[in-house]
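Bug report (template v2)

What were you trying to do?
Predict the complex of my protein with adenosine-5-diphosphoribose.

What happened?
Run completed; filing so the output is reviewed.

Input:
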Amino acid sequence: MRRAKISVIGAGNVGATCAHWAASKELGDVVLLDIPDKEGVAQGKALDLFCCAPMERFDANVHGTADYADTANSDVVIVTAGLPRKPGMSRDDLIGTNVKIVRSVAEQVATHSPDAIMILVSNPLDAMVYTAWKASGFPTNQIVGQAGCLDVARYRAFLAMKLGCSVEDISALLLGGHGDDMVPLPRYTSVHGIPIQQLLPEAEITECVERAKVGGGEIVKLMGTSAYYAPASGSVQMAEAIIKDKKRILPCAAYCDSEYGVGGYFVGVPCILGSGGVEKVIEIDLDATERPLMDESISHVKDLVATVKEMFPDLA
Ligand code: APR
């Protein structure tokens, strides 16, 4: 049986950490690509990581490069290329630079790995997913954005910290855009099946939701650059679901048309992820409090996409 192949575009903090998790989980062979100026960095990190294999006992080749030919026929491509946030910046401030980068990356991916599922991580995520879709010409099931896995993991981590219980037992769901735009869903949050409302007062649940919303910003303030362990972990969780055809239900930025009344945009929704990429968008009932928040989130995604179209008419 052929080993799966995962290419990670961008060998910076998020990209290198994706390569680390993917190799250590033996998801397949890993190619880490960066721009020609940083080829040495990609090669050095790949070599350093491969030298862990005898100790961590994983069988996965890790190759660093600046040549897209080395990424040919990847099963999954994780796109982390682009600028990260600095203190005081919003994700949206990155739009101009990162659209240009992600557009060129997506074109190369489409040429060299036409059947790959592309997982976008670069920010502002909701605009990058649209850009990659347009630039690659891929069908919508092959394009998916990582935001929900991270946001929900942060929410679960903060709830576990409050409850003093294992994160493993917390099951939760969030919808909508990345970060500030997320739609909290305490109604769909439980701790080993026990509704969260029975374990925590509403104010404390809200505190966890609000902290998850700005969780990325909290880390930017502390470190001076954006987070990478958890964003990479979320991306590799998605890659694993695809490569192993696990049919996992994960919150992802996926194309929705009639779903949630979105009308043809990528927004954060629960999806079934398997070898076909986004195999199904799952629609859940939203109540009178949740629906307006979802609408607001969708409207922000639409504004971001409109900005992309205005700045880059060829992507319209
Ligand atoms: N092709 C390939 N790699 C590129 C390109 C390109 N066209 N342009 C930039 N890169 C590379 C950079 O050279 C750098 O090595 O992308 C890498 C980005 O790494 P970091 O600066 O460390 O940024 P990181 O923290 O990894 O964040 C990357 O992910 O979570 C998001 O908001 C974050 O948009 C940011 C992205």
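What did the reviewer find?
Residues 9-15, 34-35, 38, 80-85, 94, 98, 101, 104-105, 121-123, 225-226, 228, 231 surround adenosine-5-diphosphoribose (CB under 6 Å). The longest helix spans residues 290-311.
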